[in-house]
Amino acid sequence: MAKTAISPTRSENYPEWYQQVVKAADLAENSDVRGCMVIKPWGYALWENIQRRLDTRFKETGHDNAYFPLFIPMSFLEKEAEHVEGFAKECAVVTHHRLEPNGKGGLQPAPSAKLEEPLIVRPTSETIIGATFARWVQSYRDLPILINQWANVVRWELRTRMFLRTAEFLWQEGHTVHATAEEAQEETRKMLDVYAEFAEGAMAMPVIKGEKTAGERFPGAAATYSIEAMMQDRKALQAGTSHFLGQNFAKAQEIKFQNQAGEFQYAWTTSWGVSTRLVGGLIMSHADDDGLICPPKLAPAHAVILPIFKNDEERAAVLPYCESLKNELSTQEYDGEKLRVRIDTRDLRGGEKKWQWVKRGVPLRVEVGPRDVASASVFAASRLMEKGVGVERAKFVADAPKMLGELQQQLFDRAKRARDEASVVIDTLADFEAFFAEGQPGGLAYAHFTDGPEMEAKCKALKVTPRCVPLEPLLGDDGAGECLFTGGRSERRAVFARAY
Amino acid sequence: MAKTAISPTRSENYPEWYQQVVKAADLAENSDVRGCMVIKPWGYALWENIQRRLDTRFKETGHDNAYFPLFIPMSFLEKEAEHVEGFAKECAVVTHHRLEPNGKGGLQPAPSAKLEEPLIVRPTSETIIGATFARWVQSYRDLPILINQWANVVRWELRTRMFLRTAEFLWQEGHTVHATAEEAQEETRKMLDVYAEFAEGAMAMPVIKGEKTAGERFPGAAATYSIEAMMQDRKALQAGTSHFLGQNFAKAQEIKFQNQAGEFQYAWTTSWGVSTRLVGGLIMSHADDDGLICPPKLAPAHAVILPIFKNDEERAAVLPYCESLKNELSTQEYDGEKLRVRIDTRDLRGGEKKWQWVKRGVPLRVEVGPRDVASASVFAASRLMEKGVGVERAKFVADAPKMLGELQQQLFDRAKRARDEASVVIDTLADFEAFFAEGQPGGLAYAHFTDGPEMEAKCKALKVTPRCVPLEPLLGDDGAGECLFTGGRSERRAVFARAY
Ligand SMILES: [Zn+2]
Ligand SMILES: [Zn+2]
């Protein structure tokens, strides 16, 4: 069996494989602060590409970016009990505003600088943004308010995993205010669509759009929608959420406006977000036992050129050829952007260098040696090709965008095939238990249900959760049926899975 | 006298004028958290444009973005005494990681969740990034490391002022590691140049590049360089800094590498940063008694179109004309970017609407009424024109980029003229004292000096600081001279001023 670049492999130890891919692809590393990661340049460039595309879509859909404080006064979290239950428990609490020498050569929080009211490092910003919106909204003329924030947030997690669950993470949070419930609901669904299109179109990660059951709803939300993806270990990943908050937050935060009839009424709000967790989803959707595979639309580099030479004479022939190849490639366009091309001239053995780029998942790898120069060709491979092939240089330059497009499609198709193969329609509790029994591969189970304690207890026992009730029927579209857990009538199937 | 849109005017009360411009231009507002501001969409869009341009330059000069933790363990600040003195005193200290009910219907930091080691919200990231770099650097082959981070930082300030001095602010911090002192020095100066080119080229804000005196140096730095601008009240604003850190941080953080001879040695590091303070500098460079004036290169919108109509019939003629005008304008380019054009169709009185855009400082304002439609013309004004003029529509579309370029240049010229008029060469202590005497307008004084306690005491008494020793002679380039404060020999003049 061929040796793999990542050890252990997915089948040997999936969680450890994941950590090794993150490391081998130079995406991130644990920092000196418990639960916080350092996002390294290759990982951050992926995030920047995610940001840029989403930001463009947010602006196209009428949203403006703004920035709100990192800190939330503790009293803001006290105001809304349900919200406190959900978010405020594990968080970073700022209690002092000064350090002073502790008399033993070290430092201590200065007792004289204790804050009258502790500040919480934002776990999410509904409360502070809501308080601001309450000042901004007076009249129906001020509506809608369509705001997005790119920010860092902190949730004190006990068990962390790079990108998937970290104490500090980067995200965007959209917050909007509307005059009517209908408009707010429309916004909630519109942004869910933006997320789904991004996940499938740019990340090549197929997702299910659906509504969360009551137990999985965002605290305080009237309805929570999510996009759910399936990772290669058949566990689900919630990749983005969009919340219709009804008037719950508006009432807690006094977001009121005067309507055209001159009457005061509470507004309707939404919030929606995706985070650096998407990078985790991207890894677990596409990486293989040789490391990361970047979907071309998000790849920090579309292609890397690896010059190969043994002496100065060869170097003098190969390097200029590589430079001009890079320049030619960089004039080509893929997906509306110029090709991002790098040359790796580092003083490393060719094999080591090549494998570094395989592990980082660069879509196209081009090796150029003296013989390629002589024959005006290149030795090129896409990340999904077993081996590279010699190809005429001009042809490669012309074909590169097409190769990227094919790779993007291959990744989506492969991920969708894996998901579809792991998706089943289940109609009895016995089958449900068998599907999620220990030692079984599991996957996505489409089953009729009643949202209530019987379902929740059974799911808990099986370590499964209802991921969502799909908005568009995907599997088992047979109308109403019988709830697996209560025997009662069920109108819709939910998708059940183990989840990250 | 004409009524101004901003009250008070600059001459009546400059600090209050500043706050009113920030408010009237919809740039930012105070938040519910002491010392932290909410950056509103118009202000944030300015910052995004600043970011985008700088980020492009950072990447062109070989830097990669990355992200490091928000928190710094207290012990990291203890390690380097000098650094602690300078930065760690007033900061946000996280001491607990959980809230719990306080038994009185509220919340409290949970005593059981007290952190063993307090965490500091980063005031700057030298220590945590340095600890990371120590892991990344092993060999000369790993150098240089050229990293930038876009982030929020917190410094607990007692007296805050939006954009100029806030507890939380947004910035970028470059951090680099080099094998030699020369390379690190070159990097320090290169990034200072990037800042200066940006300030003058994009912000239209003339700056002086110079080196800080010892007392004004970044704690722990071997040399600190800055760009200094003069505001309309003749006070200086430090708009960006670039630090040559020597081996000081490398020694504290054990950033060592094996050189080509196989010997271990300490590396040389730099750091450099600009922040949302630049927005404050932009305001105080260009705004007038009618509000903000956006330099076209950074303006969130280059032009706003204001449709004017009295009834549905006029509306039906005017709006499509405005839409097609917007589309035409948006195909024009200024400074390598498509024109950013908005139509303001809000249901507001024409005068109110127009003045909102004046106060926000949009470079070009275009009013379109039924008569303009009939005559295929527009009524257009740049933000620096007293009144608008009727102009043929096609001509306006063709000329818009040129008008923006002229406005950009006018702003720079005007700011430079104001600075030059307030710059003097001073050769006696008596003149120095008279220049900075209470009731005098002050400005920038170029004077010979010796870096030491006599100068510092005198400056302190006059509430003046040495801003920098200019790298390129600007005024008073008369070689060596006599220090105003000690009578000793002085090789160079420094620029002295009151400062923000
Ligand atoms: Zn919250
Ligand atoms: Zn520091």
Structure description:
The structure is a homodimer of 500-residue chains. Chain A has 14 helices and 28 strands. With 500 residues, the first copy, chain A, is an alpha+beta fold. Chain A folds into three domains: 14-72 and 125-286, 2-Layer Sandwich (BirA Bifunctional Protein, domain 2), CATH 3.30.930; 303-403, Anticodon-binding domain (Rossmann fold), CATH 3.40.50.800; 423-497, Translation Initiation Factor IF3, CATH 3.30.110. Chain A has an eleven-stranded mixed β-sheet with strand order 3-8-9-15-12-11-10-25-28-24-23, sandwiched between helices. Chain A has a five-stranded mixed β-sheet with strand order 19-16-20-21-22, sandwiched between helices. A four-stranded antiparallel β-sheet of chain A has the order 4-7-5-6. The radius of gyration of chain A is 26 Å and the shape is globular. The two termini of chain A are 31 Å apart. The interface between A and B is large, with 66 and 66 residues. Strand 5 of chain A pairs antiparallel with strand 5 (90-101) of chain B, so a sheet runs across the interface. One zinc ion binds at residues 83, 87, 123-124, 126-127 of chain B. Chains A, B: Its EC number is 6.1.1.15. Chains A, B: Its main location: cytoplasm. Chains A, B: Homodimer.
